[in-house]
Amino acid sequence: MNVWDAYSGTFISSLTGHSEMVDTALFSLDSSQLASVSTDGSVRLWAMDSIGSEPLTHASSSKVTSVAYSADGLHLFSGFLDGSVQQYEVVSDIQSLFPFGDRKLVYCIAYSPDGLRVAAAS
Fold first, then answer.
1. Which structural domains are found in the chain, ordered by start?
2. Per-residue pLDDT tens for 18-43?
3. How far apart are the C-alpha atoms of 76 and 104, rounded to whole Å?
4. Are 23 and 65 a contacting pair, CB within 8 Å?
5. 11 pLDDT band (50/70/90 cuts)?
6. What is the pTM of this model?
7. Are 49 and 6 in contact (CB under 8 A)?
């Protein structure tokens, strides 16, 4: 995965760490972090100031399909093929798994700007 300057088109860095193709990437609203999801089943959190990454572990054994940041950048939600949604507290690395009742695969996930709701589309 590569990062460029949006105005000049200047190449900034190549981000390596996933062992397979990256499906989705999403910047936090303050642009300090980049979350990426790969077909290898992993979610990585990249710090843009140091261009380093931390792999996030997840409680589901299913593949990750999508990610969404909270407006304050403190939480990251990820959706899985098995219908579960996981919340990561970015600063403390605390994780919670939220299985939804219909157990359909989660194609995409969205976090409301007020931080009160998470939508999972299946």
1. 13-110 (2.40.128)
2. 888 888 899 988 888 888 888 777 78
3. 20
4. yes
5. very high
6. 0.78
7. no
